[in-house]
């Protein structure tokens, strides 16, 4: 498979892998190196030529940024948000994990899930799941969880719910829902359906954590930096939290992207987003 046969969505997924690998290669902050990019590296090696890998990286970074200037905070942000989502998900010691719009998310392999028999449900389109399976066949079985790939259209939440239950999702087990880089691509109605559906399936002790949609001001900053955003929703994080609360995630809060940047000692950029955590 070469980049000429990949869809734009697949290229974006692999571009995110390339970002994580680039951070692992050049970051000097030890906390950023906590994100294991070895499985991302395996995916890129399997699916892309070196030239295609650079092209995938350039979907996110200016050419002058690669290979990673010493303080390339635009690159580092992707690993920062991933580590923060990891922390929030692991904090409940989940027995089930749902990766909503999983793309090429390598959490089943790179994280150590402490609950015995932890199951990670991976939800995405048939095309993305097929791509993940190629990588899974290459890197092998995760060491601390079992994977449950689910092919679904996230815009049809009822079908997602039925597929999860048919695949053995247990509504009585504490669950960590993770949606990294997804929610902003949903319309308000689709976002509400996701929040309502996940809440319906979740017992006490569960958590839903996700990157907030970009704001209108964030969109303007991105465009000023030559980046066109293709999200469906641009809004303040407080509006997204209100929608999550309306859906039943009553204990929902915003973790400011600027605070996350400070935590990992990087500068906030136009790529910086808030993270929302719901209980």
Question: How do the strands and helices of this protein lay out in sequence?
Answer:
Elements: H1 8-26, H2 38-47, H3 50-57, H4 73-90, E1 96-100, H5 107-110, E2 119-124, H6 126-139, E3 146-151, H7 157-166, E4 175-179, H8 188-201, E5 207-211, H9 216-224, H10 237-246, E6 252-255, H11 257-263, E7 275-278
Parallel strand pairs: 1-2, 1-4, 2-3, 4-5
Antiparallel strand pairs: 5-7, 6-7
Report on this structure.
By secondary structure, the chain is α/β, with parallel strands linked by helices. Helix 1 crosses helix 2 and helix 1 crosses helix 3 (50-57). The protein starts with 7 loop residues before the first helix and ends with a strand. The longest helix is centred in the N-terminal third of the chain and has 19 residues, at 8-26. The chain has helices spanning 8-26, 38-47, 50-57, 73-90, 107-110, 126-139, 157-166, 188-201, 216-224, 237-246, 257-263; strands spanning 96-100, 119-124, 146-151, 175-179, 207-211, 252-255, 275-278.
How do the helices and strands follow one another from N- to C-terminus? HHHHEHEHEHEHEHHEHE
Mean pLDDT: 90
Q: How widely separated are the two ends?
A: 41 Å
Sheet of most strands = 7 strands, mixed
Helix fraction, binned, reads 40-55%
Structural class: alpha/beta
Integer-rounded radius of gyration: 18 Å
| Contiguous runs where pLDDT drops below 50 for at least 5 residues | 64-71
Beta-strand residue percentage: 5-15%
Helical region count? 11
Q: So what's the overall shape?
A: globular
Strand adjacency order, main sheet: 3-2-1-4-5-7-6
Got a strand count?
A: 7
